[in-house]
Design goal:
This protein is mostly helical. It has one domain. It is built from ten helices and no strands. Helix 6 packs antiparallel against helix 7 and helix 9 runs antiparallel to helix 10. The radius of gyration is 18 Å and the shape is globular.
């Protein structure tokens, strides 16, 4: 845990100094929500059906912006070699980067959701608190796969384009499960009523956390 925390601390300090990752994610997500609010503001019936999907469209596209920069700073300064030369297991590097990415994505989600609730006139407390575990589970699954593919795409010139092409087909179960759970919450029902979607999301997180941590060693050696 000490080695993992060292990577997390490094990423957090770097982000606090530059603020480019968090700022770009948050700005993009808020712009998407505002545009959707104006686009569907005159059709309340359509808005209620499309709101969960709009929330996760903003969340995932903002997350891709963040993940595309996950290994970019290490690559630009050749600091990735420093990580590879440390006498530690490669899976610990993965978990350090994954946890720091999850923190950034989850915090962005915690800011997006209140803005979403306010713009679309949902009950604040009844909607916000039940959405937090959905955002967390979605963030873990999204980042678990995204961190691996971010390391995979780092050597390509078109990594910003390649990352979503690789990522989105794999995270379809995360998006489907998260949208269904968000639909339950926004309609005033408990997420436990969509138990199958909740189980799918948890199973995806566990399976891909394990698989990506094992695969990461072979991916990072090619950077």
């Amino acid at each position: 845990m000490h080695k993992i925390w060292a990577i997390i601390k490094k990423d957090i300090i770097t982000e606090l100094r530059t603020k480019e990752l968090f700022t770009s994610m948050l700005t993009f997500a808020l712009l998407v929500i505002v545009i959707f609010n104006f686009a569907f503001g005159f059709a309340p019936g359509v808005l209620n059906l499309a709101a969960p999907a709009m929330l996760w469209i903003a969340f995932t596209f903002a997350g891709v912006l963040g993940l595309s920069r996950s290994f970019a700073l290490e690559k630009e300064g050749n600091a990735i070699m420093g990580l590879l030369l440390t006498p530690t297991d490669r899976s610990l590097i993965y978990f350090g980067k994954m946890i720091s990415n999850t923190i950034f994505v989850f915090i962005t989600g915690l800011i997006i959701v209140p803005m979403f609730v306010i713009f679309f006139n949902y009950n604040f407390l009844d909607t916000l608190l039940p959405l937090i575990p959905v955002i967390f589970l979605g963030s873990v699954g999204f980042v678990a796969v995204g961190t691996l593919f971010s390391a995979m795409a780092i050597n390509t010139k078109l990594r910003e384009v390649l990352l979503p092409i690789l990522l989105f087909p794999i995270i379809i179960p995360v998006i489907v499960g998260a949208v269904k759970l968000s639909t339950q919450v926004l309609s005033g029902e408990s997420i436990l009523e969509a138990r199958s979607s909740l189980q799918l999301l948890i199973a995806f997180d566990i399976i891909f956390l394990t698989a990506c941590s094992v695969t990461f060693e072979y991916v990072i050696e090619e950077t």
